[in-house]
Protein backbone atom coordinates (compact mmCIF):
# COMPACT_ATOMS: atom_id res chain seq x y z
CA UNK A 1 0.00 0.00 0.00
CA UNK A 2 2.54 2.57 1.11
CA UNK A 3 6.28 2.24 0.60
CA UNK A 4 8.60 1.74 3.56
CA UNK A 5 11.98 3.45 3.84
CA UNK A 6 13.56 0.84 2.67
CA UNK A 7 47.93 15.12 2.10
CA UNK A 8 46.69 14.70 5.93
CA UNK A 9 44.40 13.51 8.67
CA UNK A 10 42.98 16.98 9.24
CA UNK A 11 41.86 17.13 5.61
CA UNK A 12 39.71 14.07 6.22
CA UNK A 13 38.25 15.32 9.47
CA UNK A 14 37.62 18.90 8.36
CA UNK A 15 37.03 18.60 4.65
CA UNK A 16 38.99 21.73 3.78
CA UNK A 17 39.79 22.37 0.12
CA UNK A 18 43.37 22.10 -1.02
CA UNK A 19 44.24 25.75 -0.98
CA UNK A 20 46.32 28.00 1.16
CA UNK A 21 44.79 30.75 3.23
CA UNK A 22 45.94 33.63 5.35
CA UNK A 23 45.63 33.23 9.12
CA UNK A 24 42.02 33.57 10.13
CA UNK A 25 41.42 36.94 11.80
CA UNK A 26 38.86 37.47 14.50
CA UNK A 27 35.66 37.99 12.47
CA UNK A 28 34.24 41.46 12.72
CA UNK A 29 30.90 41.88 14.37
CA UNK A 30 28.25 43.00 11.88
CA UNK A 31 27.27 45.69 14.34
CA UNK A 32 24.14 46.44 16.29
CA UNK A 33 21.56 47.90 14.02
CA UNK A 34 18.14 48.32 15.54
CA UNK A 35 15.99 45.27 16.07
CA UNK A 36 13.86 44.58 13.02
CA UNK A 37 10.20 43.74 13.45
CA UNK A 38 9.63 40.02 12.99
CA UNK A 39 7.76 40.40 9.71
CA UNK A 40 10.48 42.69 8.40
CA UNK A 41 13.19 40.16 9.21
CA UNK A 42 11.17 37.40 7.52
CA UNK A 43 10.86 39.59 4.44
CA UNK A 44 14.58 40.31 4.57
CA UNK A 45 15.31 36.60 4.56
CA UNK A 46 13.11 36.16 1.50
CA UNK A 47 14.62 39.13 -0.30
CA UNK A 48 18.19 37.90 0.08
CA UNK A 49 17.29 34.35 -0.97
CA UNK A 50 15.28 35.55 -3.97
CA UNK A 51 18.11 37.83 -5.08
CA UNK A 52 20.41 34.82 -5.35
CA UNK A 53 17.75 32.77 -7.15
CA UNK A 54 17.14 35.57 -9.64
CA UNK A 55 20.87 35.79 -10.39
CA UNK A 56 20.95 32.08 -11.14
CA UNK A 57 17.60 32.15 -12.98
CA UNK A 58 16.09 29.45 -10.76
CA UNK A 59 12.30 29.51 -10.34
CA UNK A 60 10.77 28.89 -6.92
CA UNK A 61 8.24 26.24 -6.00
CA UNK A 62 4.79 27.29 -4.87
CA UNK A 63 3.80 28.01 -1.30
CA UNK A 64 3.34 24.92 0.84
CA UNK A 65 -0.23 23.93 1.55
CA UNK A 66 -1.60 24.36 5.06
CA UNK A 67 -1.19 20.62 5.64
CA UNK A 68 2.44 20.66 4.49
CA UNK A 69 3.24 23.69 6.64
CA UNK A 70 1.42 22.25 9.65
CA UNK A 71 3.38 19.01 9.75
CA UNK A 72 6.68 20.68 8.91
CA UNK A 73 6.49 23.35 11.59
CA UNK A 74 5.37 20.87 14.26
CA UNK A 75 8.37 18.65 13.52
CA UNK A 76 10.85 21.52 13.35
CA UNK A 77 9.63 23.45 16.38
CA UNK A 78 7.93 20.81 18.57
CA UNK A 79 9.83 17.71 17.52
CA UNK A 80 6.68 15.71 16.75
CA UNK A 81 3.76 15.60 14.35
CA UNK A 82 0.41 17.13 15.37
CA UNK A 83 -2.37 14.99 16.72
CA UNK A 84 -5.39 14.37 14.50
CA UNK A 85 -7.35 16.89 16.55
CA UNK A 86 -4.62 19.53 16.26
CA UNK A 87 -4.39 18.92 12.52
CA UNK A 88 -8.15 19.16 12.01
CA UNK A 89 -8.41 22.35 14.06
CA UNK A 90 -5.70 24.06 12.02
CA UNK A 91 -6.87 22.82 8.63
CA UNK A 92 -10.48 23.86 9.36
CA UNK A 93 -9.44 27.37 10.44
CA UNK A 94 -10.12 30.29 8.12
CA UNK A 95 -8.15 32.80 10.19
CA UNK A 96 -5.67 34.56 7.90
CA UNK A 97 -3.16 34.70 10.78
CA UNK A 98 -3.39 30.98 11.57
CA UNK A 99 0.19 30.19 10.56
CA UNK A 100 1.67 32.94 12.71
CA UNK A 101 -0.58 31.96 15.61
CA UNK A 102 0.51 28.34 15.30
CA UNK A 103 4.19 29.28 15.31
CA UNK A 104 3.73 31.39 18.44
CA UNK A 105 1.84 28.59 20.18
CA UNK A 106 4.49 26.03 19.36
CA UNK A 107 7.39 28.25 20.41
CA UNK A 108 5.76 28.85 23.80
CA UNK A 109 4.99 25.17 24.39
CA UNK A 110 6.76 22.52 26.43
CA UNK A 111 7.23 20.32 23.37
CA UNK A 112 9.42 23.02 21.84
CA UNK A 113 11.55 23.26 24.97
CA UNK A 114 11.96 19.48 25.06
CA UNK A 115 12.83 19.39 21.35
CA UNK A 116 15.50 22.05 21.78
CA UNK A 117 16.88 20.17 24.78
CA UNK A 118 17.08 17.04 22.62
CA UNK A 119 19.05 18.90 19.96
CA UNK A 120 21.49 20.60 22.31
CA UNK A 121 22.16 17.69 24.63
CA UNK A 122 23.13 15.61 21.59
CA UNK A 123 25.61 18.30 20.60
CA UNK A 124 27.03 18.92 24.06
CA UNK A 125 27.19 15.56 25.83
CA UNK A 126 29.93 13.20 24.73
CA UNK A 127 29.18 9.51 24.43
CA UNK A 128 32.37 7.84 25.63
CA UNK A 129 33.46 5.04 27.92
CA UNK A 130 34.82 7.47 30.52
CA UNK A 131 31.34 8.87 31.11
CA UNK A 132 29.33 5.66 30.66
CA UNK A 133 27.94 5.86 34.22
CA UNK A 134 27.10 9.53 34.01
CA UNK A 135 23.40 10.38 34.39
CA UNK A 136 22.46 12.68 31.50
CA UNK A 137 18.81 13.14 32.42
CA UNK A 138 19.41 16.03 34.90
CA UNK A 139 21.12 18.05 32.16
CA UNK A 140 18.35 17.37 29.63
CA UNK A 141 15.67 18.40 32.12
CA UNK A 142 17.65 21.51 33.05
CA UNK A 143 18.11 22.44 29.41
CA UNK A 144 14.39 22.05 28.84
CA UNK A 145 13.67 24.45 31.70
CA UNK A 146 16.04 27.05 30.23
CA UNK A 147 14.49 26.82 26.78
CA UNK A 148 10.98 26.93 28.28
CA UNK A 149 11.92 30.19 30.01
CA UNK A 150 13.43 31.46 26.74
CA UNK A 151 16.58 32.40 28.59
CA UNK A 152 18.90 34.53 26.43
CA UNK A 153 21.17 32.08 24.67
CA UNK A 154 24.41 33.82 25.64
CA UNK A 155 23.32 33.65 29.30
CA UNK A 156 22.61 29.94 28.93
CA UNK A 157 26.01 29.35 27.35
CA UNK A 158 27.71 31.33 30.11
CA UNK A 159 26.06 29.13 32.75
CA UNK A 160 27.29 26.01 30.96
CA UNK A 161 30.82 27.33 30.43
CA UNK A 162 31.27 28.36 34.07
CA UNK A 163 29.36 25.49 35.70
CA UNK A 164 30.91 23.95 38.81
CA UNK A 165 29.89 22.04 41.90
CA UNK A 166 28.00 18.76 42.35
CA UNK A 167 25.82 17.61 39.49
CA UNK A 168 22.75 17.26 41.70
CA UNK A 169 23.06 20.93 42.68
CA UNK A 170 24.07 22.24 39.25
CA UNK A 171 23.01 20.05 36.30
CA UNK A 172 24.95 22.29 33.90
CA UNK A 173 28.13 20.59 35.16
CA UNK A 174 27.05 17.51 33.19
CA UNK A 175 28.65 19.08 30.13
CA UNK A 176 32.09 19.04 31.73
CA UNK A 177 31.55 15.63 33.30
CA UNK A 178 30.82 14.14 29.88
CA UNK A 179 33.86 15.67 28.17
CA UNK A 180 36.48 14.55 30.73
CA UNK A 181 39.63 15.44 28.75
CA UNK A 182 40.82 18.93 27.90
CA UNK A 183 40.99 18.24 24.16
CA UNK A 184 37.36 17.06 24.13
CA UNK A 185 36.36 20.17 26.07
CA UNK A 186 38.16 22.43 23.62
CA UNK A 187 36.85 20.66 20.53
CA UNK A 188 33.22 20.72 21.70
CA UNK A 189 33.28 24.36 22.76
CA UNK A 190 34.78 25.24 19.39
CA UNK A 191 32.29 23.24 17.34
CA UNK A 192 29.05 24.00 19.22
CA UNK A 193 29.58 27.53 20.50
CA UNK A 194 31.91 28.92 17.82
CA UNK A 195 31.08 26.87 14.74
CA UNK A 196 34.78 26.12 14.34
CA UNK A 197 36.66 22.84 14.12
CA UNK A 198 39.58 23.71 16.35
CA UNK A 199 40.75 20.10 16.64
CA UNK A 200 42.50 20.33 13.28
CA UNK A 201 45.20 22.49 14.88
CA UNK A 202 45.69 20.33 17.97
CA UNK A 203 48.73 18.42 16.76
CA UNK A 204 50.31 20.81 14.25
CA UNK A 205 49.84 24.12 12.50
CA UNK A 206 46.87 23.80 10.18
CA UNK A 207 48.06 23.83 6.54
CA UNK A 208 44.93 25.37 5.03
CA UNK A 209 43.38 27.87 7.43
CA UNK A 210 46.56 29.30 8.87
CA UNK A 211 45.57 28.35 12.43
CA UNK A 212 48.63 27.66 14.55
CA UNK A 213 48.99 24.90 17.12
CA UNK A 214 49.53 27.57 19.78
CA UNK A 215 46.11 28.96 18.81
CA UNK A 216 44.49 25.65 19.76
CA UNK A 217 46.35 25.27 23.04
CA UNK A 218 45.76 28.93 23.88
CA UNK A 219 42.03 28.13 23.86
CA UNK A 220 42.57 24.82 25.65
CA UNK A 221 44.43 26.65 28.42
CA UNK A 222 41.08 28.01 29.64
CA UNK A 223 40.09 24.43 30.52
CA UNK A 224 43.33 23.02 31.92
CA UNK A 225 42.24 23.84 35.47
CA UNK A 226 38.87 22.06 35.12
CA UNK A 227 38.68 18.93 37.22
CA UNK A 228 35.64 16.72 36.55
CA UNK A 229 35.20 13.96 39.12
CA UNK A 230 33.16 11.04 37.77
CA UNK A 231 31.86 8.05 39.74
CA UNK A 232 34.42 5.23 39.77
CA UNK A 233 34.05 1.65 40.94
CA UNK A 234 31.97 1.56 44.11
CA UNK A 235 32.12 5.34 44.51
CA UNK A 236 28.53 6.52 44.94
CA UNK A 237 29.32 10.18 45.57
CA UNK A 238 27.66 12.76 43.35
CA UNK A 239 29.83 13.67 40.33
CA UNK A 240 31.18 17.18 40.55
CA UNK A 241 33.25 19.76 38.71
CA UNK A 242 35.68 22.22 40.16
CA UNK A 243 38.40 24.51 38.88
CA UNK A 244 41.74 24.19 40.63
CA UNK A 245 43.88 27.26 41.47
CA UNK A 246 46.72 26.17 39.19
CA UNK A 247 47.25 24.03 36.13
CA UNK A 248 48.27 20.51 37.06
CA UNK A 249 50.80 19.67 34.37
CA UNK A 250 51.22 16.13 35.64
CA UNK A 251 47.51 15.31 35.51
CA UNK A 252 46.41 12.14 33.80
CA UNK A 253 44.72 11.82 30.41
CA UNK A 254 46.44 14.80 28.80
CA UNK A 255 46.97 14.19 25.07
CA UNK A 256 50.54 13.73 23.83
CA UNK A 257 50.22 16.91 21.79
CA UNK A 258 49.61 19.10 24.86
CA UNK A 259 51.37 22.45 24.95
CA UNK A 260 51.29 24.62 28.05
CA UNK A 261 50.85 28.17 26.80
CA UNK A 262 49.13 31.25 28.18
CA UNK A 263 45.35 31.43 27.66
CA UNK A 264 44.46 33.20 24.44
CA UNK A 265 41.12 34.00 22.85
CA UNK A 266 40.83 32.26 19.50
CA UNK A 267 42.09 34.66 16.86
CA UNK A 268 42.35 37.39 19.51
CA UNK A 269 44.29 38.70 22.45
CA UNK A 270 45.73 37.11 25.58
CA UNK A 271 43.71 38.21 28.61
CA UNK A 272 45.44 39.42 31.72
CA UNK A 273 44.49 36.92 34.41
CA UNK A 274 46.03 36.15 37.79
CA UNK A 275 47.62 32.72 37.90
CA UNK A 276 45.22 31.44 40.57
CA UNK A 277 42.08 33.05 39.15
CA UNK A 278 39.35 30.94 37.49
CA UNK A 279 39.77 30.95 33.73
CA UNK A 280 36.42 29.79 32.37
CA UNK A 281 34.58 32.97 33.45
CA UNK A 282 37.15 34.98 31.50
CA UNK A 283 36.47 32.94 28.38
CA UNK A 284 32.70 33.24 28.96
CA UNK A 285 32.96 37.03 29.24
CA UNK A 286 34.63 37.12 25.83
CA UNK A 287 32.59 34.49 24.00
CA UNK A 288 29.18 35.60 25.34
CA UNK A 289 29.72 39.31 24.87
CA UNK A 290 27.03 40.96 22.77
CA UNK A 291 29.57 42.22 20.24
CA UNK A 292 31.48 38.94 19.76
CA UNK A 293 30.11 37.36 16.57
CA UNK A 294 31.49 33.85 17.14
CA UNK A 295 28.61 32.64 19.32
CA UNK A 296 25.85 34.51 17.50
CA UNK A 297 27.01 33.45 14.05
CA UNK A 298 27.44 29.80 14.99
CA UNK A 299 24.01 29.75 16.64
CA UNK A 300 21.96 31.31 13.84
CA UNK A 301 23.72 29.01 11.40
CA UNK A 302 22.62 25.99 13.49
CA UNK A 303 19.08 27.33 13.79
CA UNK A 304 18.95 27.78 10.03
CA UNK A 305 20.08 24.17 9.58
CA UNK A 306 17.40 23.04 12.04
CA UNK A 307 14.71 24.75 9.98
CA UNK A 308 16.00 24.42 6.41
CA UNK A 309 17.97 21.18 6.48
CA UNK A 310 21.45 22.64 6.07
CA UNK A 311 23.36 25.64 7.37
CA UNK A 312 24.09 28.80 5.45
CA UNK A 313 27.61 27.58 6.13
CA UNK A 314 27.78 23.84 5.58
CA UNK A 315 28.89 21.87 7.54
CA UNK A 316 27.57 24.00 10.39
CA UNK A 317 30.68 23.56 12.55
CA UNK A 318 33.13 24.55 9.81
CA UNK A 319 32.82 28.33 9.63
CA UNK A 320 36.09 29.67 8.22
CA UNK A 321 37.35 31.74 5.32
CA UNK A 322 37.84 28.71 3.06
CA UNK A 323 34.21 27.60 3.51
CA UNK A 324 32.06 30.65 2.74
CA UNK A 325 28.36 30.94 3.43
CA UNK A 326 25.94 30.33 0.58
CA UNK A 327 24.30 33.66 1.46
CA UNK A 328 26.93 35.76 3.33
CA UNK A 329 24.76 38.85 3.66
CA UNK A 330 21.89 36.83 5.09
CA UNK A 331 24.16 35.16 7.65
CA UNK A 332 25.43 38.59 8.74
CA UNK A 333 21.90 39.97 8.92
CA UNK A 334 20.72 37.12 11.13
CA UNK A 335 23.83 37.42 13.30
CA UNK A 336 23.25 41.13 13.75
CA UNK A 337 19.59 40.65 14.66
CA UNK A 338 20.34 37.83 17.09
CA UNK A 339 22.82 40.03 18.93
CA UNK A 340 20.66 43.14 18.83
CA UNK A 341 17.64 41.21 20.08
CA UNK A 342 19.41 39.91 23.17
CA UNK A 343 20.19 36.40 21.84
CA UNK A 344 16.47 35.57 21.71
CA UNK A 345 16.21 32.11 20.13
CA UNK A 346 12.46 32.24 19.66
CA UNK A 347 12.57 35.55 17.81
CA UNK A 348 15.00 34.19 15.21
CA UNK A 349 13.09 30.91 14.86
CA UNK A 350 9.82 32.79 14.43
CA UNK A 351 11.27 34.97 11.67
CA UNK A 352 12.56 31.88 9.89
CA UNK A 353 9.32 29.90 10.25
CA UNK A 354 7.21 32.75 8.86
CA UNK A 355 9.46 33.50 5.92
CA UNK A 356 8.17 32.50 2.50
CA UNK A 357 11.47 30.66 2.04
CA UNK A 358 10.52 28.29 4.86
CA UNK A 359 6.92 28.07 3.71
CA UNK A 360 7.92 26.97 0.22
CA UNK A 361 6.73 23.58 -0.97
CA UNK A 362 9.21 20.72 -1.25
CA UNK A 363 7.70 19.72 -4.59
CA UNK A 364 10.00 20.55 -7.51
CA UNK A 365 8.88 22.40 -10.63
CA UNK A 366 10.53 22.61 -14.05
CA UNK A 367 13.70 24.62 -13.61
CA UNK A 368 14.45 23.86 -9.96
CA UNK A 369 14.34 20.06 -9.77
CA UNK A 370 18.13 19.90 -10.05
CA UNK A 371 18.87 23.07 -8.08
CA UNK A 372 21.25 22.67 -5.16
CA UNK A 373 19.66 22.53 -1.71
CA UNK A 374 21.48 25.72 -0.69
CA UNK A 375 19.59 27.69 -3.34
CA UNK A 376 16.37 27.27 -1.27
CA UNK A 377 14.20 27.25 -4.38
CA UNK A 378 12.13 24.60 -2.60
CA UNK A 379 12.18 23.09 0.86
CA UNK A 380 14.56 20.14 1.18
CA UNK A 381 12.97 16.91 2.38
CA UNK A 382 14.48 15.99 5.74
CA UNK A 383 14.56 12.62 7.46
CA UNK A 384 13.02 12.49 10.94
CA UNK A 385 15.62 12.29 13.68
CA UNK A 386 15.32 9.44 16.19
CA UNK A 387 13.70 11.71 18.77
CA UNK A 388 11.22 13.10 16.25
CA UNK A 389 10.34 9.61 15.05
CA UNK A 390 9.80 8.20 18.54
CA UNK A 391 7.79 11.18 19.75
CA UNK A 392 5.66 11.14 16.60
CA UNK A 393 4.94 7.44 17.07
CA UNK A 394 3.93 8.14 20.68
CA UNK A 395 1.70 10.96 19.47
CA UNK A 396 -0.18 8.44 17.32
CA UNK A 397 0.03 5.23 19.35
CA UNK A 398 0.46 6.41 22.93
CA UNK A 399 2.41 4.39 25.48
CA UNK A 400 1.32 0.85 26.37
CA UNK A 401 -1.85 1.11 28.44
CA UNK A 402 -2.14 4.86 27.94
CA UNK A 403 -3.75 7.23 25.50
CA UNK A 404 -1.61 9.39 23.25
CA UNK A 405 -2.37 12.60 25.18
CA UNK A 406 -1.34 11.09 28.51
CA UNK A 407 1.81 9.60 27.02
CA UNK A 408 2.77 12.92 25.42
CA UNK A 409 2.29 14.76 28.73
CA UNK A 410 4.57 12.27 30.46
CA UNK A 411 7.10 12.65 27.67
CA UNK A 412 7.22 16.40 28.21
CA UNK A 413 7.16 16.57 32.00
CA UNK A 414 9.28 13.55 32.80
CA UNK A 415 12.10 12.51 30.50
CA UNK A 416 12.36 8.77 30.06
CA UNK A 417 15.28 7.31 31.97
CA UNK A 418 18.47 6.18 30.30
CA UNK A 419 17.14 2.62 30.12
CA UNK A 420 13.53 3.50 29.30
CA UNK A 421 11.68 2.84 26.02
CA UNK A 422 12.66 6.19 24.54
CA UNK A 423 16.35 5.75 25.34
CA UNK A 424 16.33 2.23 23.90
CA UNK A 425 14.65 3.45 20.73
CA UNK A 426 17.14 6.31 20.34
CA UNK A 427 20.06 3.93 20.80
CA UNK A 428 18.63 1.69 18.08
CA UNK A 429 18.11 4.56 15.64
CA UNK A 430 21.07 6.74 16.62
CA UNK A 431 23.00 8.07 13.66
CA UNK A 432 25.95 10.36 13.14
CA UNK A 433 25.50 13.67 14.97
CA UNK A 434 26.93 15.48 11.93
CA UNK A 435 24.88 13.54 9.37
CA UNK A 436 23.16 15.37 6.54
CA UNK A 437 19.53 15.92 7.54
CA UNK A 438 18.38 14.91 4.06
CA UNK A 439 20.06 11.48 4.14
CA UNK A 440 18.51 8.42 5.75
CA UNK A 441 21.06 7.08 8.23
CA UNK A 442 19.24 3.97 9.41
CA UNK A 443 19.07 0.67 7.57
CA UNK A 444 17.35 -2.69 7.37
CA UNK A 445 17.52 -3.47 11.13
CA UNK A 446 15.78 -0.20 12.00
CA UNK A 447 13.11 -0.63 9.32
CA UNK A 448 12.43 -4.20 10.44
CA UNK A 449 12.26 -3.00 14.04
CA UNK A 450 9.44 -0.64 13.10
CA UNK A 451 7.60 -3.06 10.82
CA UNK A 452 7.68 -5.92 13.33
CA UNK A 453 7.18 -3.94 16.51
CA UNK A 454 4.33 -5.43 18.61
CA UNK A 455 2.87 -1.96 19.02
CA UNK A 456 2.73 -1.59 15.24
CA UNK A 457 0.95 -4.91 14.88
CA UNK A 458 -2.01 -4.62 17.21
CA UNK A 459 -5.41 -3.16 16.30
CA UNK A 460 -5.72 -1.29 19.61
CA UNK A 461 -4.49 2.10 18.36
CA UNK A 462 -6.43 1.95 15.10
CA UNK A 463 -9.62 1.01 16.96
CA UNK A 464 -9.12 3.82 19.47
CA UNK A 465 -8.46 6.39 16.73
CA UNK A 466 -11.52 5.34 14.72
CA UNK A 467 -13.97 4.73 17.54
CA UNK A 468 -17.48 5.91 16.72
CA UNK A 469 -16.58 6.87 13.14
CA UNK A 470 -17.87 5.57 9.84
CA UNK A 471 -15.41 3.76 7.59
CA UNK A 472 -14.69 6.84 5.48
CA UNK A 473 -14.40 9.06 8.56
CA UNK A 474 -12.06 6.53 10.18
CA UNK A 475 -9.77 6.54 7.15
CA UNK A 476 -9.70 10.33 7.15
CA UNK A 477 -8.88 10.35 10.86
CA UNK A 478 -6.02 7.88 10.45
CA UNK A 479 -4.48 10.05 7.72
CA UNK A 480 -4.83 13.17 9.86
CA UNK A 481 -3.24 11.33 12.80
CA UNK A 482 -0.22 10.15 10.81
CA UNK A 483 0.37 12.35 7.75
CA UNK A 484 -1.45 15.46 9.05
CA UNK A 485 -3.63 15.69 5.96
CA UNK A 486 -6.85 14.18 4.63
CA UNK A 487 -6.41 11.24 2.26
CA UNK A 488 -6.54 11.76 -1.48
CA UNK A 489 -9.58 10.36 -3.29
CA UNK A 490 -7.54 7.43 -4.63
CA UNK A 491 -6.20 6.69 -1.15
CA UNK A 492 -9.69 6.70 0.31
CA UNK A 493 -10.91 4.32 -2.38
CA UNK A 494 -8.00 1.94 -1.82
CA UNK A 495 -8.50 1.90 1.95
CA UNK A 496 -12.27 1.45 1.68
CA UNK A 497 -11.81 -1.49 -0.68
CA UNK A 498 -9.46 -3.07 1.83
CA UNK A 499 -11.97 -2.60 4.65
CA UNK A 500 -14.88 -4.00 2.65
CA UNK A 501 -12.97 -7.10 1.56
CA UNK A 502 -11.55 -7.86 5.02
CA UNK A 503 -13.01 -10.56 7.23
CA UNK A 504 -11.87 -8.67 10.36
CA UNK A 505 -12.55 -4.91 10.11
CA UNK A 506 -10.50 -4.17 13.24
CA UNK A 507 -7.46 -5.82 11.72
CA UNK A 508 -8.09 -4.07 8.40
CA UNK A 509 -7.96 -0.69 10.16
CA UNK A 510 -4.75 -1.80 11.86
CA UNK A 511 -3.33 -2.72 8.43
CA UNK A 512 -4.02 0.78 7.15
CA UNK A 513 -2.45 2.40 10.20
CA UNK A 514 0.56 0.06 9.95
CA UNK A 515 1.10 1.03 6.31
CA UNK A 516 0.88 4.74 7.12
CA UNK A 517 3.31 4.53 10.03
CA UNK A 518 5.82 2.56 7.97
CA UNK A 519 5.58 4.85 4.95
CA UNK A 520 8.24 7.14 3.60
CA UNK A 521 5.84 10.02 4.09
CA UNK A 522 5.62 9.38 7.83
CA UNK A 523 9.39 9.04 8.27
CA UNK A 524 10.22 12.30 6.51
CA UNK A 525 9.68 16.01 7.02
CA UNK A 526 8.55 17.49 3.72
Task: Give your account of this protein's structure.
The protein has helices spanning 9-14, 38-55, 66-78, 84-92, 98-108, 110-124, 137-148, 153-161, 174-179, 182-194, 213-220, 280-287, 293-308, 328-340, 345-353, 386-397, 404-413, 421-429, 444-452, 460-466, 471-483, 489-501, 505-517; strands at residues 165-166, 226-229, 240-243, 382-383, 524-525. The radius of gyration is 25 Å and the shape is globular. The chain has 23 helices and 5 strands. The longest helix has 18 residues, at 38-55. It is an all-alpha fold and 526 residues long. The protein has 2 domains: 22-381, no CATH class; 384-525, no CATH class.
Write the topology of this structure.
Blueprint lengths: L8 H6 L23 H18 L10 H13 L5 H9 L5 H11 L1 H15 L12 H12 L4 H9 L3 E2 L7 H6 L2 H13 L18 H8 L5 E4 L10 E4 L36 H8 L5 H16 L19 H13 L4 H9 L28 E2 L2 H12 L6 H10 L7 H9 L14 H9 L7 H7 L4 H13 L5 H13 L3 H13 L6 E2 L1
Antiparallel strand pairs: 1-3, 2-3, 4-5
Helix pairs in contact: 2-14, 2-15, 3-5, 4-21, 5-15, 6-7, 8-12, 10-13, 13-14, 13-15, 16-17, 16-18, 20-23, 21-22, 21-23, 22-23
Concise account of the structure shown:
This protein is mostly helical and 526 residues long. The chain is built from 23 helices and five strands. Strands 1-3-2 form a three-stranded antiparallel β-sheet. Strands 4-5 form a two-stranded antiparallel sheet.
Amino acid sequence: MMRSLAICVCLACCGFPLMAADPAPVPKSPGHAGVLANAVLSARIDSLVLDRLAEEKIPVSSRASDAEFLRRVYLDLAGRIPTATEAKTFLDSTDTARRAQLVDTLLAGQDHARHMADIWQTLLLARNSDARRLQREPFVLWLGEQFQANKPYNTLVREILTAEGPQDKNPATTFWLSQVTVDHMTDTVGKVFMGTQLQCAQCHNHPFTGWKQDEYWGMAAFFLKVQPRLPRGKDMNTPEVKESPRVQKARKNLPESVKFVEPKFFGGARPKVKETAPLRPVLADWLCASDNPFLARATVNRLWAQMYGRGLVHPVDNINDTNPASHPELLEELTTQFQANGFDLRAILRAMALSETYQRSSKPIPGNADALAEAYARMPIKVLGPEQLFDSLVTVLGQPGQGAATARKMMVTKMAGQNGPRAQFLAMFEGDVDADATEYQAGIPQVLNLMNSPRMNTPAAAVRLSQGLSSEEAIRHLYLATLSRPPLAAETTLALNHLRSAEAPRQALADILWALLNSTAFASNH
